[in-house]
């Protein structure tokens, strides 16, 4: 066994891989070879490191130095300076936007320091394609403890008292779900891992699978053991995550070779195996019954859940479906005990399993924040801390407007509610929801009407079209929003919009329809004035809805700075700009179709938007 | 690999122990060899391989060995600092191959300072 | 006077004999030269009868039965269809022109067909002329003694 | 049993009934669109939503598939429910403004005009409203699995696999039947070739043949019953209380030993389309005698009324005799019965309609008892009886279309005039001809046929009911065209003849039998395999063959084949035939 003194953890999550982190690793290997350090330094691919905005990322251990936004050209200098001479390279480090002084150690960077890792505990520390790495960091110890020292009932009681709730968005207490699946009659039962993750902007499940697939597998084995009569599990991964599928396939193969999956696991007399099923890319297949229909080979359409899937699910058999993150938490709870888990988070679950939100939640922080990436925070953390401390505040010093949580089914939360503690109950109370964990921060330049329209357009396109309110209703709402954003909206439209939203929420067959109107409802509730502006004054405050803008050229700037550079004329599709080179240019409002191209191309900001 | 028994899990964990300590950066002892340009010129590389050799020989898993830049005392290179557990770090100077191996045995393994090679005990205060 | 051929006709009772009767009932004219012997089935016609007929001076012999599949006794005409062609080859040995022996299927409703066949065969035999067989005079007479019936 | 309250009315229903069913039992109306008794509730139109209140939690659920729970209180008309129903119907009305079922439901719920217009607006009255009923009936009841949904969201539509007519479709029409808007239509051409209005076959897969059927019980037509195609449906079995329906029953072949057989296999009518000049099969309202007979029958397709194809009463009817009979190209014999039933038709048409009736005959053969008097009565009624064979029947030229859709051209031989008469309907008197399968039947019973194709009787005058073959008798039109009195007379005579044999208990058989002269028999057994009636067996101890007198029919084939002429036969011994030969040669 080679003895290394240095471990270079190269992030190989999908984000970084698409940013050429593979080339970075090759460059590292080459340079290490050149300096003959190959016996001392090992370069290792890891799963997603979490700080996706800063990719490609390399963390040099044991020093814990965090390098970001690397290019292959930086590698020779880095290897020589840091690996050979032991001098960390300052200009490749992360520096907080405010102070501009680099922070060498990863643990000191606020983005990481304020997080509490349970589901992502192995991120950046192990090679996901090496089962030994996972075992080295205490992997499968939870399974051994469950199989040898605990009866299925004890395991189930442990999960129940830990207060773990569904991380897929519903927040249904996992212990209760396992229990009802256990008591449902039927000799063949199944467990499913929902890795469909259709929300746009949500990628936490993906990075868990890519970074630590065995955590999910161990969780599912423990779950199957606890529920009993479960010998076959499925992981439903969407086709758009090829790297995740590959990592899962490798992990399952290795687990089978090690006897952790298949016949008589660890000679403990328990048989369980997992197969992968690929989702064909329908967002609706994230819903449990639609997912099961898809696994059964039928078109992905939800059915009424008056009889829960834990009693009659896959092929009419009792089936327990949980999200990736939920399964990933299970091994740690069994290993470290329910007390440890319920000590983190809010509320009290001893009496009522719905009584609190325990443990941590992974959010994919995106939008107009400086530090975008995966954030695992304890339940109850104030929203402000996520956005401003971990997220590093709003980019380019713009003013915060709202944060959207829960993906397209969630809602917008204005600044006034920024201090609300993040957990299931609080978020639902303000009209949004925990959802899968998507968190999009918007600033003053975002138009709330346009944001609502964006998310509604997504759910409308993804509606399976089975039930009338969702199929017809969302299209009707989208048409209204389209009219509003081009200035044809009326006051009465706003009333219809709200009314329709509530009908759809109340009467839709599944959660997709039931939550699609949330973005519209919350923006109407908290940002009514923006809708009024669009409708009454036919103006978009943040100039996003271009059809409502009027474009004019400021003569002074155009002449003095731009010297009539004539660029805008070349690009204007309607030939609405008059003016010769070296002279003032002028926009003819009659011809202007308000496409906003001139505003984009003018380098001197001579074009004014009103 | 044949099917695992429960005890196999612990064996695998033990084998990968050394890698993990490095990754977690939490070892029993830490040797820092000063490899500034002057250090390397003075032969710090040899000292480093000596230490590595000792680690391999004694199959030590929980000692971290890193490099750092010039400690400021170029005349006494090659130098190395050894921190054992939470004791104060000790700077050794004018090291040679066998000096390094002696320090390794007595200080890194035994936990006793080797005063005759040491320059100072304790570390500078960083404002 | 012109040569009037003597023709023996073996007719099966169910089909050809009834057909001949129909021809008569329907007043259809046909040559009188065929002298008819009725047997229950064309299968009953023993080749030796035909040889005897030639022996005692018949210029032509015609055997008629039901169409294949119509036989009242299921398979009688199948036996006939095997015997007559053999017999044709045999008679050639005796110097008798095989055309003087003919086999035809006539069903009960084919009165006109029966008449046509009879006319045709008569003309054919007339064209062949009388059959001059050197037959030992002794044999020319038939055996008359009746056999006691047990 | 579960007790619950619906609009504060106490209801008790079995365990897993749906709220909709419970409400129905309590006489409370809940609007439904995509629901049907035939299959599992699909629960997509959401119109049947109700509030299920349990304790303080109230939940909006679809009543069609929500199972009743103990003690819940269901509100089927609360303001919230009304608000939801109204909005959903507004959404549907916006997209399908002219579909009747949507308009009715909207009116019932109180929606006049939707607040918005849909970009996917479909003005058609029979637009598809995506209720999914056709998909469910095809999948669950018919189990042919032909229809399904394609695409997603607003583009969702009903589709055939790969958009092509699928072979799996058994054209049962179930989807067209359940479609609430009539969007799915049955295309007549490929309706398995049956002409809808005059299908002699059944209207439905299970039907009572006619009211006078004996026994008067329903029978299943395996060709059009879904169960025999896909194993699905069995709906009739579900609703039959005495569950008398057993799909397993199959035709069974029984072998019965009988002494005598009466062949009364009846007749076929001549296919008039072989005579193109009369337009049968090509022109509308030209009917064969059998079809017109069905039209007159009260249980027939038109319940006894004389109607043209488009349902109107004909103003004039032409009845044409001798179609295929007394015709050298087809049947030279006279079918004997046509004249009388043609007169019957004239009589009935005269009674039931005010049409003027024309009768075209060659010779009016009213030969039976009371027939001539009937013919005179018809003449008194003013039926125009014209002596002359009809030359042809053609489509009326547009100018004369108003007087009659067809024109009958013929020559009145008595008046010596050529006539062209416009009529609305022509009835042909098709000839009676031997059954198309009579040859096979004949061979089966080894009886022969006469020139006109009917079975041949032993003797036309003296013995018209028996045949050449002993024990086989014939009666009815199988022996030749005749009307009912004659058929009855002949049939009873045949029956009497057979009974006389049965009562006597023994059967006289012809003395013509073969027998073996054992002293000559060399036991060569050639004759054993020869006999079609296996009448010859071999006596092992005597080493000679022996003829079973009862079985032997006396054909004599074995006598001819016996090499040692040990086999001889009463009545046809060799000596007798040789003597005959000798006699005729003199």
Task: Characterize this entry briefly.
Chain B has 127 residues and is of the alpha+beta class. Chain B has helices at residues 6-15, 17-24, 37-41, 44-58, 97-110, and strands spanning 29-34, 63-68, 80-84, 90-92, 118-121.
Could you give the topology of this structure?
The complex is a heterotetramer of chains A (610), B (127), C (150) and D (586).
Chain A lengths: L5 E6 L2 H5 L2 H14 L6 E6 L11 E4 L3 E3 L6 H11 L25 H4 L17 H6 L4 H9 L2 H11 L11 H10 L5 E7 L8 H8 L1 H15 L2 E9 L3 H16 L4 E4 L4 E10 L8 H8 L23 E5 H19 L17 E8 L5 E6 L4 H8 L9 E6 L5 E4 L9 H6 L8 E6 L4 H15 L5 H18 L5 H17 L3 H5 L2 H9 L1 H10 L13 E3 L1 H6 L6 H5 L5 E2 L7 E2 L9 H5 L5 E3 L1
Parallel strand pairs in A: 1-2, 5-6, 5-9, 6-8, 10-14
Antiparallel strand pairs in A: 1-3, 3-4, 7-8, 10-11, 12-13, 12-14, 15-18, 16-17
Helix pairs in contact in A: 2-3, 6-10, 6-13, 7-8, 7-10, 7-13, 9-10, 9-11, 10-13, 16-17, 17-18, 18-20
Chain B lengths: L5 H10 L1 H8 L4 E6 L2 H5 L2 H15 L4 E6 L11 E5 L5 E3 L4 H14 L7 E4 L6
Chain D lengths: L1 E5 L2 E5 L5 H7 L23 E6 L2 E6 L10 E3 L3 H17 L4 H10 L23 H9 L6 E3 L6 E3 L14 H5 L27 E2 L11 E2 L6 H4 L4 H5 L21 E3 L3 E3 L16 E2 L1 H8 L19 E8 L14 H15 L3 E6 L9 H10 L3 E4 L2 E6 L10 E7 L4 E7 L1 E6 L1 E3 L3 H8 L26 E3 L9 H21 L9 E3 L9 H5 L5 E4 L4 E4 L9 H5 L5 E3 L4 H12 L1
Parallel strand pairs in D: 1-5, 10-21, 12-19, 13-14, 13-19, 14-15
Antiparallel strand pairs in D: 1-2, 3-4, 3-5, 6-7, 8-9, 11-20, 16-17, 17-18, 22-25, 23-24
């Amino acid at each position: 066994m080679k003895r290394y003194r240095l471990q270079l953890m190269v992030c190989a999550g999908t984000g970084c891989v698409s940013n050429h982190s593979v080339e970075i690793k090759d460059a590292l290997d080459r340079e290490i070879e050149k300096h003959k350090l190959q016996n001392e330094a090992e370069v290792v691919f890891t799963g997603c490191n979490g700080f996706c905005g800063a990719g490609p990322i390399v963390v040099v251990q044991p020093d814990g130095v965090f390098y970001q936004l690397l290019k292959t050209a930086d590698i020779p200098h880095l290897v020589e300076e840091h690996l050979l001479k032991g001098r960390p390279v300052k200009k490749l480090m992360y520096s907080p936007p405010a102070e501009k002084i680099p922070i060498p150690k990863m643990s000191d960077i606020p983005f990481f320091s304020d997080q509490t890792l349970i589901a992502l505990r192995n991120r950046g520390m192990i090679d996901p394609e090496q089962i030994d790495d996972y075992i080295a960091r205490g992997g499968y110890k939870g399974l051994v403890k469950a199989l040898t020292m605990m009866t299925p009932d004890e395991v189930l009681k442990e999960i129940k008292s830990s207060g773990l709730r569904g991380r897929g968005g519903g927040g249904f207490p996992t212990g209760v779900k396992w229990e009802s699946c256990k008591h449902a009659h039927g000799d063949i039962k199944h467990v499913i891992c929902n890795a469909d993750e259709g929300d746009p902007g949500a990628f936490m499940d993906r990075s868990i699978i890519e970074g630590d697939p065995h955590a999910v597998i161990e969780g599912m084995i423990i779950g199957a053991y606890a529920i009993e009569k479960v010998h076959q599990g499925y992981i439903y991964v969407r086709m758009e995550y090829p790297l995740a599928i590959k990592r899962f396939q490798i992990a399952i193969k290795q687990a089978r070779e090690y006897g952790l999956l298949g016949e008589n696991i660890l000679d403990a007399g328990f048989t369980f195996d997992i197969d992968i099923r690929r989702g064909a890319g329908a967002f609706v297949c994230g819903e449990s019954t639609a997912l099961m229909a898809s696994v059964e080979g039928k078109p992905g359409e939800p059915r009424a859940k008056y009889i829960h899937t834990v009693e009659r699910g896959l092929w009419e058999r009792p089936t327990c479906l949980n999200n990736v993150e939920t399964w990933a938490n299970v091994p740690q709870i069994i290993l470290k005990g329910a007390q440890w888990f319920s000590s983190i988070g809010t509320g009290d679950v001893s009496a009522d399993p719905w009584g609190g939100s325990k443990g941590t939640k992974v959010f994919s922080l995106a939008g107009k924040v400086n530090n975008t990436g995966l954030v695992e925070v304890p339940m109850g953390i104030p929203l402000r801390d996520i956005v401003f401390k971990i997220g590093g505040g709003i980019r380019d010093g713009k003013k915060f407007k709202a944060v959207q949580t829960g993906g397209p089914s969630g809602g917008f939360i204005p600044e006034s509610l920024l201090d609300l503690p993040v957990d299931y109950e609080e978020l639902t109370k303000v009209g949004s929801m925990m959802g899968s964990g998507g968190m999009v921060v918007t600033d003053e330049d975002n138009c709330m009407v346009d944001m609502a329209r964006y998310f509604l357009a997504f759910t409308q396109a993804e509606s399976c079209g089975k039930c009338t309110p969702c199929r017809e209703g969302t299209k009707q709402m989208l048409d209204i929003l389209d009219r509003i954003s081009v200035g044809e909206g009326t006051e009465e439209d706003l009333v219809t919009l709200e009314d329709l939203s509530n009908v759809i929420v109340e009467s839709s067959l599944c959660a997709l329809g039931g939550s699609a109107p949330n973005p519209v409802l919350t923006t109407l509730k908290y940002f009514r004035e923006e809708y009024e502006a669009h409708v009454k004054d036919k103006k978009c405050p943040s100039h996003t809805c271009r059809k409502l803008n009027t474009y004019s050229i400021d003569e002074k700037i155009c002449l003095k700075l731009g010297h009539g550079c004539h660029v805008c004329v070349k690009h204007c599709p309607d030939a609405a700009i008059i003016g010769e080179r070296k002279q003032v240019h002028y926009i003819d409002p009659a011809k202007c179709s308000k496409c906003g191209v001139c505003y984009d191309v003018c380098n001197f900001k001579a074009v004014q938007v009103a | 690999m044949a099917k695992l028994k429960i005890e196999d899990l612990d064996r695998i964990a033990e084998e990968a122990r050394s890698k993990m300590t490095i990754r977690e950066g939490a070892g029993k002892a830490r040797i820092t060899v000063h490899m500034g340009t002057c250090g390397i010129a003075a032969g710090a590389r040899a000292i480093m391989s000596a230490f590595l050799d000792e680690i391999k020989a004694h199959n030590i898993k929980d000692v971290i060995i890193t490099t750092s830049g010039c400690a400021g005392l170029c005349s006494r290179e090659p130098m190395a600092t050894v921190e054992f557990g939470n004791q104060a770090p000790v700077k050794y100077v004018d090291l040679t191959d066998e000096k390094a191996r002696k320090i390794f045995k007595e200080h890194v393994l035994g936990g006793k300072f080797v005063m005759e090679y040491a320059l100072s005990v304790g570390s500078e205060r960083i404002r | 006077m012109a040569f009037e051929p003597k023709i023996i006709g073996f007719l099966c009772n169910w089909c050809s004999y009834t057909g001949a009767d129909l021809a008569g009932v329907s007043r259809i004219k046909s040559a009188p030269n065929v002298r008819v012997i009725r047997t229950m089935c064309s299968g009953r016609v023993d080749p030796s009868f035909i040889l005897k007929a030639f022996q005692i001076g018949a210029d032509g012999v015609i055997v008629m039965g039901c169409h294949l599949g119509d036989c009242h006794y299921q398979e009688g005409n199948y036996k006939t269809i095997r015997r007559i062609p053999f017999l044709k080859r045999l008679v050639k040995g005796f110097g008798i022109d095989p055309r003087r022996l003919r086999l035809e299927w006539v069903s009960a409703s084919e009165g006109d067909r029966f008449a046509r066949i009879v006319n045709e065969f008569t003309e054919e035999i007339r064209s062949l002329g009388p059959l001059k067989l050197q037959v030992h005079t002794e044999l020319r007479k038939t055996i008359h003694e009746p056999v006691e019936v047990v | 049993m579960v007790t619950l309250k619906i609009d504060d009315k106490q209801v008790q229903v079995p365990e897993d009934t749906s709220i909709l069913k419970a409400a129905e039992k309590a006489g409370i109306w809940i609007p439904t669109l995509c629901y049907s008794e035939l299959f599992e509730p699909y629960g997509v139109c959401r119109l049947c939503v109700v509030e299920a209140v349990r304790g303080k939690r109230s939940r909006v659920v679809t009543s069609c598939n929500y199972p009743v729970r103990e003690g819940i209180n269901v509100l089927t008309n609360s303001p919230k429910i009304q608000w939801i129903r109204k909005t959903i119907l507004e959404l549907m009305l916006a997209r399908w403004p002219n579909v009747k079922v949507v308009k009715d439901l909207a009116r019932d719920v109180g929606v006049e005009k939707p607040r918005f217009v849909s970009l996917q607006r479909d003005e058609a009255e029979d637009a598809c409203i995506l209720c999914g009923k056709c998909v469910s009936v095809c999948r669950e009841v018919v189990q042919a699995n032909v229809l399904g949904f394609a695409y997603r969201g607003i583009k969702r539509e009903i589709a055939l696999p790969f958009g092509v007519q699928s072979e799996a479709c058994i054209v049962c029409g179930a989807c067209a039947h359940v479609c609430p808007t009539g969007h799915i239509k049955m295309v007549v051409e490929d309706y398995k070739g049956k002409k809808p209005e005059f299908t002699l076959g059944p209207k439905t897969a299970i039907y009572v043949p006619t009211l006078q059927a004996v026994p008067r019980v329903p029978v299943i037509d395996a060709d059009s019953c879904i169960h025999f195609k896909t194993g699905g449906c069995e709906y009739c079995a579900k609703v039959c209380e005495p569950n008398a329906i057993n799909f397993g029953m199959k035709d069974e072949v029984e072998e019965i030993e009988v002494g005598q057989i009466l062949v009364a296999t009846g007749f076929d009518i001549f296919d008039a389309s072989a005579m193109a000049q009369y337009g049968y099969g090509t022109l509308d309202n030209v009917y064969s005698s059998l079809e017109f007979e069905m039209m007159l029958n009260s249980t027939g397709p038109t319940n006894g009324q004389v109607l043209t194809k488009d349902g109107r009463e004909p103003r004039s009817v032409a009845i044409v005799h001798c179609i295929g009979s007394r015709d050298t190209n087809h049947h030279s014999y006279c079918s004997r019965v046509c004249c009388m039933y043609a007169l019957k038709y004239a009589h009935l048409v005269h009674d039931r309609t005010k049409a003027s009736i024309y009768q075209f005959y060659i010779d009016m053969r009213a030969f039976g008892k009371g027939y001539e008097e009937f013919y005179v009565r018809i003449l008194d009624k003013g039926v125009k009886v014209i002596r002359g064979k009809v030359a042809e029947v053609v489509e009326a030229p547009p100018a004369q279309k108003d007087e009659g859709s067809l024109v009958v051209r013929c020559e009145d031989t008595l008046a010596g005039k050529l006539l062209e008469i416009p009529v609305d309907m022509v009835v042909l008197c098709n000839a009676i001809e031997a059954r198309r399968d009579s040859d096979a039947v004949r061979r089966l019973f080894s009886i022969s046929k006469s020139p006109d194709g009917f079975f041949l009787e032993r003797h036309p005058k003296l013995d018209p009911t028996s045949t050449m073959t002993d024990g086989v008798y014939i009666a009815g039109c199988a022996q030749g065209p005749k009307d009912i009195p004659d058929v009855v007379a002949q049939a009873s005579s045949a029956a009497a003849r057979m009974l006389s044999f049965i009562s006597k208990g023994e059967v006289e058989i012809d003395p013509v039998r073969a027998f073996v002269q054992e002293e000559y028999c060399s036991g060569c057994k050639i004759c054993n395999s020869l006999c079609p009636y296996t009448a010859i067996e071999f006596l092992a101890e005597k080493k000679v063959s022996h003829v079973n007198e009862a079985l032997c029919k006396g054909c004599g084939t074995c006598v001819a084949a016996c090499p040692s002429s040990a086999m001889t036969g009463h009545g046809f011994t060799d000596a007798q035939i040789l003597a005959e030969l000798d006699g005729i040669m003199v």
